[in-house]
Specification:
Length: 275
């Protein structure tokens, strides 16, 4: 049996979603009908889409624990060309801190709790038990790989795996820049206020923050829909302020959204509502 196929089946048997990689650590296309985003979903799955194509499909989302898919006819050509095996860390409840060079490894040893480590070509993977949003370049040479990404399988590693610590979760929280503030366009109102009391607006903003914070998948879509709902309910009477928008942006950025994506989602929601 093909070595990479054997590895993928072994991972699947242990509950780890696996998939083949081409040379250059690139996933196979798998689904010809999705080429050039024809299905409506993004091939890199960084933004959600209504793709209803049969699996296997779409990079990390192709990773599976189903041996019938892994060893099935759809993947037979891929295994013949495969250069490596990848897995979906978030799909098995794991987070990989990808340290891309020796300086990053030195930083991790000084800063992060010890856990299971796997040597890579230039650095190390530190693997923690627990999933979180994935963000690249949280600092020089450090990527967070967990939900909605794949990581190359390089072996089980050594050391005892520990629970995902707050120090790793905190790496994806973006501090607002005092020198480059994000300008958010807030409707100036003009309609009749339906809120009666500030408590109504406060409850609405708090619920919106919670909705964003609770998203476990489709974060982009959740953020947009939440912005749309807030602007629809509170955006026409002038009660909504920049401070309220900033709270929603902060919740979204904690989930891995960039400030630019927040601004775009807010602008698109305003446009959809004719504001």
């Amino acid at each position: 049996m093909n070595t990479h196929l054997h590895t993928a089946l072994d991972l699947a048997a242990r509950g780890v979603p696996a998939m083949p990689l081409r040379a250059g650590k690139v996933p196979f296309g798998n689904c010809p009908t999705c080429r050039d985003n024809a299905c409506g979903g993004r091939p890199n799955m960084k933004t959600p889409g209504p793709c209803t194509c049969p699996r296997p499909c779409h990079a990390w989302a192709a990773a599976t624990t189903n041996p019938a898919v892994i060893a099935g006819a759809a993947w037979t050509p891929a295994w013949k060309q495969a250069a490596a095996v990848a897995y979906h860390p978030g799909g098995t409840g794991l987070t990989v801190v990808d340290l891309d060079h020796s300086n990053a490894v030195t930083w991790a040893r000084r800063t992060l709790p010890a856990t299971r480590t796997v040597p890579t070509t230039r650095g190390e993977h530190w693997i923690y038990r627990g999933a979180m949003p994935s963000v690249n370049a949280v600092r020089d040479g450090v990527d967070i790989k967990s939900s909605m990404v794949y990581a190359r399988w390089l072996g089980p590693g050594t050391g005892t795996m520990t629970t995902l610590p707050d120090t790793v979760r905190a790496l994806i929280v973006k501090e607002p820049s005092p020198t480059r503030p994000v300008t958010v366009a807030v409707p100036t109102g003009g309609g009749e206020c339906r809120h009666r009391t500030p408590a109504y607006l406060e409850r609405g903003i708090a619920m919106a923050e919670q909705r964003i914070s609770s998203a476990t998948s489709g974060v982009h879509a959740t953020v947009y829909r939440t912005f749309l709902a807030v602007l629809s309910a509170h955006g026409r009477c002038g009660c909504l302020t920049g401070a309220h928008a900033a709270r929603l942006f902060a919740a979204a950025q904690t989930k891995g959204e960039s400030a630019r994506h927040c601004v775009d989602a807010w602008s698109n929601a305003r446009t959809a509502l004719g504001m």
